[in-house]
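Hi there,

I know you've been waiting on this one. I reran it after we fixed the sequence typo, so this is the corrected version. Both the input and the resulting structure follow.
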Amino acid sequence: MAFRAVFKCIAGCSGEHPLDSIIYRCPTCGDLLEVRHDMEALANLSSSAWTKKFEQRFMSTAWPHGSGVWGKKEWVAPHVRDENIVSMFEGGTNLLWAKRYGTPLGLEDLWVKQCGNSHTGSFKDLGMTVLVSTVNQMIADGSTVRAIACASTGDTSASLAAYAAAAGLRAVVILPRGKISTAQLVQPLSNGAVVAAIDTDFDGCMKLVQQLTESNEVYLANSMNSLRVEGQKTVAIEIVQQFDWQVPDWIFIPGGNLGNVSALGAGFTMMRDLGVISRLPRICVAQAERANPLYQYYRRGFEDFAPIEAQKTLASAIQIGNPVSLRKAVRTLREFDGVVEQASEAELAGAAARADLTGMFCCPHTGVKPGSRVVVVSTANGLKFADMKTRYHDGALEAVPEDGYRNQPIELPHDFDRVRGAVLGALDS
């Protein structure tokens, strides 16, 4: 059975564009595009047939369906031929029952979707496999694209560099100098990307990369390119699948450039429209207090949006003041009866520390809310923020007071009695 998907304007302008064409905005009104699937063709297969197919493929060794993204290829990127797929076995990340973390918060049914347990350590892999595979196919079909480029606060650059290297393609990364972690910087360098560290913030980098990709020689990899959203929407499908096709009550997700919000929404609405689920969860977007343009917009009833200059925050991956995917995110929040919250530096550092003390090792982008079943999407691996965690335990983080969760090594001489006394004393404290 043949399936089809195209780009269409989110504002409803007429016209459609192939997914392998170089286009990022509607040529009529300039608004963002989104991927629209031939839902009538997809509906020719029953909801039970789809779930059975997805279950049979999940985490298998059959190429390319063992990937959490490509196991749902018909719903994501039916235009990519299997021989052009660039996959690192992304997706299939664990959904952890965080009982010890949730119970003190009054959340017995708290779950953490650990998207950081992916190839490059973040959920960005889910979208990048679709985008890079599409470019790989475009080049195989004669396109003159020379490189793929992104602006990034860390995770997008790591994912782009890795997938481009796997495909034998060139990657260009535009980063704000001195504003990402060492672990995030070393990833694109190691994978051979051309890395430009610019004396600006993410929003300044985003303007530069949009100018750079006006030429068809360089292809844009940021989330304003809806191919990324198509891969990332599989997080929603995977969560429901891991709950035996039941829908949680709340989904919490950090919000920076806001492509992930619309991606979640796209996954849930597609499942609903094809009869796999009968209701939608509520969505909460969490922003850092120092980078909270969506939160401020939400507090104004989504009227009179004003970009801000994002301030330095421990949640560096969401340090964005003018999110590209704002309109898509707001549309999703309205449809899902969503809310937006903010967290201070002390709150986000403390939340990550409490989670770590229960066996996790999360990135500092998280949030929870009382409810019967809550899923927190952890977008990146905590190892990318080892510097921040070290400074937290050293008490060296600005604006983060002592909160009782810090832990430091006990420095002792090579003397058993001293070691025994110190260890037992620590166990008694």
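Quick highlight: The mean pLDDT is 93.

Best,
R. S.
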